[in-house]
Amino acid sequence: MSKSDHKIQLYTNEFYSACILGGVIACGPTHSAVTPLDLVKCRLQVNPKLYKSNVDGWKTIIRNEGFGKVFTGFGATAIGYSLQGAGKYGGYEFFKHFYSNNVLSPELASRYTTGVYLAASATAEFIADIMLCPFEAIKVRQQTTVPPFCNNVFQGLSKVYSTEGLKGFYKGIVPLWFRQIPYTMVKFTSFEKIVQAIYAKLPTPKSEMSPLQQISVSFTGGYLAGILCAIVSHPADVMVSKINSERKSGESMMDASKRIYKVIGFNGLWNGLMVRIVMIGTLTSFQWLIYDSFKVKIGLPTTG
Fold first, then answer.
1. Maximum pairwise Cα distance, the chain
2. N or C: which end of the chain has fewer CB within 10 A?
3. Transmembrane ranges (predicted)?
4. How would you class 251 by CB atoms within 10 Å of its CB: exposed for 0-12, middle for 13-18, buried for 19 or more?
5. What are phi and psi of 11, to 5 degrees?
6. 225-281: per-residue pLDDT in tens?
């Protein structure tokens, strides 16, 4: 993997633009690739008795709806998570540097690195979710209604806007924040800490390791971080699916959450957890693999 002849200076506009592009490349394709798994997960979150397993879900969908329907929500996923990846990865790099140099002194920043990671990732995700939310709303409606709410993402956007206006795109923003912000805080902070721990145990310093070796560390750290992400954010993920599919007209977010929780209970918040652990663990590891591979390709250091 060769580096570019052009040297990108850290923390410049060019650097942040590269990180934004890396986030798009890392998140859009990976989330889109697991659309069939996400489809079954979302439907099981809404109705845990719908399928006996992932395989049973795919067989049932192919038998009743056709093979192409296992990719229901692909377009909304690709667009939404590309935008989210741009905001999440680019924003994280920006706010990590901003908080370390403009909010804290260098001494405090080096002492409280965990706090910097948590604050930077939370801020970045807050912004990223504003871009993601309209497409997440379309995706969930497509995946949890039979026949699907719409045939494609653009038809879905038009349909929601014509009937509900802009608020229709953001009725799930609060549970999305509750799902994604803790998820991203765990994702980035645990990744940084896990990767640091791995490098500390290895006999060769990171500076002397090849790019391939460093990327292998990123992949391992990403998968372990992904497992933690899935567990922390799963209850909110269930509520996002339920609220987007079952919230009544005129019902407040709080009332909808209370009503749904009374029906599903605490155990219901964990429907589909094992599927999500596999999905998020795989997603997170490949996202870090792609993101850091991209950074190495353009001459930037790997994360961590």
1. 61
2. N
3. 268-291
4. middle
5. 65, 25
6. 989 888 888 888 888 778 777 778 778 878 888 899 998 998 888 888 887 888 788
What is 13-297's CATH topology?
Answer: Mitochondrial carrier fold (1.50.40)
Q: How far is CA 188 from the centre of its chain?
A: 11
**For the segment 151-176, what is each residue's pLDDT rounded down to a tens digit?**
899 999 999 999 999 888 998 898 88
DSSP string, 191-248: HHHHHHHHHHHSSS-GGGS-HHHHHHHHHHHHHHHHHHHHHHHHHHHHHHHHHHHHPP
Choose among 181, 184, 194: nearest CA to 304.
194
- Distance CA(95)–CA(101), nearest Å, equals 10
Whole-angstrom distance, CA of residue 135 vs CA of residue 173 = 11
* DSSP designation for 298: T
Query: Given the structure tokens 């219901």, which residue do they identify?
Result: 268
Contact 269, 240 (CB under 8 A): no
Tokens of 144: 């949890």
Q: What residues have CB less than 8 Å from 155, skipping those under 6 apart? A: none
pLDDT tens per residue, range 119-155: 999 999 999 999 999 999 999 899 988 778 898 999 9
b (16+ CB within 10 A) / e for 42-62: bbbbbeeeebeebeebbeebe
| CA–CA separation, 161 and 63 (whole Å) | 33
By 3-state DSSP, what share of the chain in percent is helix, strand and coil, each rounded to 5?
80, 0, 20
Phi, psi dihedrals of residue 149, rounded to the nearest 5°? -55, -35
Residue 98 tokens, joined: 């901003």
Query: Is-above-0.85 flag for pTM?
Result: no
